[in-house]
Amino acid sequence: MKRIIVTGALGQIGSELVRKLRIEYGKDNVLATDIREDKNHDGPFEVLDVLDALKMYEVAKKFKADTMIHLAALLSATAEIKPILAWELNMGGLLNALEVSKELNMQLFNPSSIAVFGPSTPKNDTPQETLQRPTTMYGVNKVAGELLCDYYHLRYGVDVRGLRFPGLISPGTPPGGGTTDYAVEIYHKAVNEGSYTSYIAEGTYMDMMYMPDALNAIVELMEADPAKLTVRNAYNVSAMSFDPSEIAAEIKKHIPHFEIKYDVDPVRQSIAESWPNNIDSSRAVADWGFNPKYDLKAMTIDMLDKIGGGIK
Ligand code: AKB
């Protein structure tokens, strides 16, 4: 049975992933950690700043962890506002996670992002291997992080695995500071207020995935036969691509009075425009059977149901 330590466990992915891992591997085999205290946490929990390498080592060693899921990071929009902090946290945290994984012989999961691509990358069906010249601090962190993962795998044999996540959509803990967050906010505003003002312009396409598919992808990748993995930096994975008007039209099918307006934020718009319209996930399909279940239609039904909008 795996013994898993999760960093950034109170964030959007972490809060749902820890719940799933505890169901699959047993509550006491999954240690949630975060920089914030969670007094009501239901299961093993430790306060951990990922920049504290010694504490990361001690906590993982004491727990006898054989796997680390390293989620603590600043997302793209916040990273543009606080680029130095983004560099320190995103790079320092990952370096510590790689070092601790090397020392304790742990398997490591590192989330990368569609942000590794930039304006010179092919925009449609973006291949697994292509130009990666991002123009955001977050993208620079993610490319450097992917290279570090390759390095630790080649040089030290660390069993590191990663996914280039698109925007992740979920009804629970909200994302914070991302460019794709509009696709989460829109559902809450639709249910609670009947309208949403999008900071991303109509016609701007980005890759997206519903959280259950993202969680399955993490577990399947970490369980995959290492001999089948041809990528150690991070696999392209996407389940759908849409622009704000398409998600609005899907919501309108269930909430007919719903209206979308636009008040474009230049910072997040320019980040979105530097990213692909849709990436090609075929390598993940071939190597370990990536198979997302939710498209825009199915995700919208589930999101509205869970948020409380019901289906009319
Ligand atoms: C963001 O928008 O920053 C993230 C991402 C695509 O990595 N959701």
UniProtKB/TrEMBL annotation:
One of its GO terms (molecular function) is L-threonine 3-dehydrogenase activity. Pfam families: Epimerase. Transmembrane segments: none annotated. One of its GO terms (biological process) is L-threonine catabolic process. Residues 4-227 form the NAD-dependent epimerase/dehydratase domain. InterPro entries: Epimerase_deHydtase, NAD(P)-bd_dom_sf, NAD(P)_epim/dehydratase. Signal peptide: none annotated. Belongs to the NAD(P)-dependent epimerase/dehydratase family. This is NAD-dependent epimerase/dehydratase family protein. It comes from Ureibacillus terrenus.
